């Protein structure tokens, strides 16, 4: 496609009103600040086609680039992905959920399925942790429902886009669009697979189709015997860029995690030094809780369940379901 630029993001004055850095020197081709003139032209074409169909939201350049990267800069495919996402957002009532939904049962649900954001890695990205081995859907459905769990999933994806990633970008001084994910398979066995398949399938669908390009690194720890062999077959069907983000580790994962995550940010349970009062899994600790890294309107509602408004680059990637993200 031509020579890749390493200049500031080419902004659209109508939609791009970012209050955080818009380039990251470490990211590759097709990312903000690392696009070719041809790719810049495709962003304009993509936006114009969406405008002609009446879309007015989520048309900022960073968001459009994520959808284009997810579809290898094929505008018709990216357009279908975007419009399908907008239809889903309307059907699932995402805006209403963000305003009204309260996941009051979260502490009890986390006893069976911990999935949470906790501080940042050495690149400044949010760390997301999921412990799949503790899943007990029978017990969880006595506390909550699949519908409520999926609504919480969506809230976390929305909060990743805002305020988490913008806050992390401000603190690090560079654009951050992805997460560092730890997926703990300790306790996962073949007998539990069928019982959680329906839920994981729904999670995967949401992650892959509606929140693309959010996976930065994925550490699969406590991988059971034979898992690496299975993955060696599966990765043949994955994009090489995605495969490079995935690390399969057994029980001796501590040193590898600490290469990417500062010990003071990694929970004790995973070999780090952090032991938040009340438990790391419920703390939601990170730059997104620090007023100096939030927009002034966001700072006033930093502890609210609803994300504070950032003018652009708001959503469409929180969240749980890193296994699904690994294929996005």
UniProtKB/TrEMBL annotation:
It comes from the Eukaryota. This is CRAL-TRIO domain-containing protein. Gene3D superfamilies: CRAL-TRIO lipid binding domain (3.40.525.10), N-terminal domain of phosphatidylinositol transfer protein sec14p (1.10.8.20). Residues 287-328 are annotated as: Disordered. Residues 296-328 have a biased composition (Low complexity). InterPro entries: CRAL-TRIO_dom (IPR001251), CRAL-TRIO_dom_sf (IPR036865), CRAL/TRIO_N_dom (IPR011074), CRAL/TRIO_N_dom_sf (IPR036273), PI/PC_transfer (IPR051026). Residues 105-278 form the CRAL-TRIO domain. It holds the Pfam family CRAL_TRIO_N.
């Amino acid at each position: 496609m031509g020579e890749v630029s390493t200049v500031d993001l080419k902004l659209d004055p109508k939609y791009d009103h970012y209050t955080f850095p818009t380039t990251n020197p470490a990211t590759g081709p097709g990312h903000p600040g690392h696009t070719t003139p041809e790719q810049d032209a495709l962003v304009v074409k993509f936006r114009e086609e969406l405008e002609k169909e009446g879309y007015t939201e989520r048309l900022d350049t960073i968001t459009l680039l994520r959808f284009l990267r997810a579809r290898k800069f094929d505008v018709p495919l990216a357009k279908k992905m975007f419009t399908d996402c907008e239809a889903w957002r309307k059907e699932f009532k995402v805006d209403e959920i963000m305003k009204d939904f309260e996941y009051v049962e979260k502490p009890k649900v986390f006893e069976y399925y911990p999935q949470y954001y906790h501080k940042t890695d050495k690149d400044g990205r949010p760390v997301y942790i999921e412990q799949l081995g503790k899943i007990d859907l029978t017990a969880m459905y006595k506390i909550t429902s699949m519908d409520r769990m999926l609504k919480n999933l969506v809230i976390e994806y929305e909060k990743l886009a805002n305020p988490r990633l913008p806050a992390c970008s401000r603190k690090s001084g560079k654009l951050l669009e992805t997460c560092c994910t730890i997926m703990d398979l300790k306790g996962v066995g073949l007998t539990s697979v069928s019982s959680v398949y329906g839920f994981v399938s729904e999670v995967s669908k949401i992650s892959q189709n509606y929140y693309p390009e959010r996976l930065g690194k994925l550490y699969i720890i406590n991988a059971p015997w034979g898992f690496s062999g299975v993955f060696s077959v599966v990765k043949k069907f994955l994009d090489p860029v995605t495969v490079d983000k995935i690390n399969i580790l057994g029980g001796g994962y501590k040193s590898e995690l600490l290469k990417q995550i500062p010990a003071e940010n990694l929970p004790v349970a995973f070999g780090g030094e952090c032991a938040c009062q009340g438990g790391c899994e419920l703390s939601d600790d990170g730059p997104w809780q620090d007023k100096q890294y939030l927009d002034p309107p966001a700072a006033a509602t930093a502890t609210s369940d609803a994300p504070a408004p950032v003018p652009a680059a708001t959503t469409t990637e929180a969240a749980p379901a890193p296994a699904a993200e690994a294929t996005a």
